[in-house]
Design a protein that fits this description.
Blueprint (H helix, E strand, L loop, with lengths): L6 E6 L3 H9 L1 H4 L10 H10 L3 E3 L4 E4 L3 E7 L4 E6 L7 H4 L2 H21 L6 E8 L4 H4 L13 E5 L5 E9 L3 E6 L5 E8 L9 E8 L4 H18 L8
Antiparallel strand pairs: 1-5, 2-3, 3-4, 4-5, 6-11, 7-8, 8-9, 9-10, 10-11
């Protein structure tokens, strides 16, 4: 274990003012942060607004837990650097440190994707999560993308039988992000997190983001993927 803080560092093809606004306006945060659920607005308020310390002039934002966003103006691009607070002296909080870090990797890449590919657009999402009972990319028919670098095209048959094609958007140690043409130039983020104190067996998750699909198309997408997930990663019965 190391006490060095974890850093997420991305360059976004958008002006620094647009990136800053996307971190401060709840309506804009809703277009990229995480996934939709009944408590999303409250989550946004707790993470980005309550207790936040900001400097609009310096484009610096410190949020709960002392995680720090720093934006650097690169003209028509922006460097976003998120430095996580180091582990502290609270064992209960530290048990979730790695899970929170993985969440930030997802969120920052969602932000970059939304600003670069769908500025000003709303999205629809499907979130899937469970215990890591089987390797995720293999189960999802995505093993072929496991070694592809960011920027490379891919084309596979997904776990629901539908074709998935696009580009590898990003990679990290535990996650891969794929653009999906059939979801209105959407984004699929797949993650397999290693064991942690909070989750001794590890976890798996997917976030599906779609743009411009009508109600029937999105409902069908949601239904197919939820059904596959429930069959592949059924809930593990509580012990005791």
């Amino acid at each position: 274990m190391t006490d060095e803080p974890f850093v997420v560092d991305v360059t976004i093809a958008a002006p620094v003012g647009e990136v800053w606004d996307a971190l401060r306006d709840p309506a804009l945060i809703r277009r990229w942060h995480g996934w939709h659920f009944d408590g999303l607005d409250e989550e946004i308020d707790v993470i980005y607004l309550k207790g936040a310390v900001e400097s609009a002039e310096d484009h610096r934002l410190e949020i709960q837990g002392d995680d720090v966003f720093e934006l650097t103006d690169l003209g028509d691009r922006t460097r976003l650097r998120l430095t996580r607070a180091p582990r502290g002296g609270n064992p209960e909080w530290d048990a979730y440190y790695d899970d929170i870090t993985e969440g930030w990797i997802t969120f920052v890449n969602q932000l970059a994707f939304a600003l670069e590919r769908h500025p000003g657009a709303d999205r629809r999402t499907v979130f899937l999560s469970g215990d890591a009972t089987t390797p995720l990319l293999e189960a999802a028919g995505l093993a072929a993308v496991s070694g592809l670098p960011a920027g490379r095209p891919y084309e596979v048959t997904g776990p629901t039988g539908e074709p998935l094609r696009g580009q590898v958007r990003f990679r990290s140690a535990n996650q891969v992000g794929l653009t999906v043409e059939g979801w209105g130039d959407g984004l699929l983020v797949a993650g397999q997190n290693p064991p942690s104190p909070a989750h001794p067996g590890g976890t798996v998750m997917m976030v599906l983001t779609a743009y411009g699909l009508d109600e029937a198309a999105f409902t069908g997408l949601e239904s197919r993927w939820n059904a596959w997930w429930a069959q592949t990663y059924p809930p593990v019965a509580a012990q005791g």
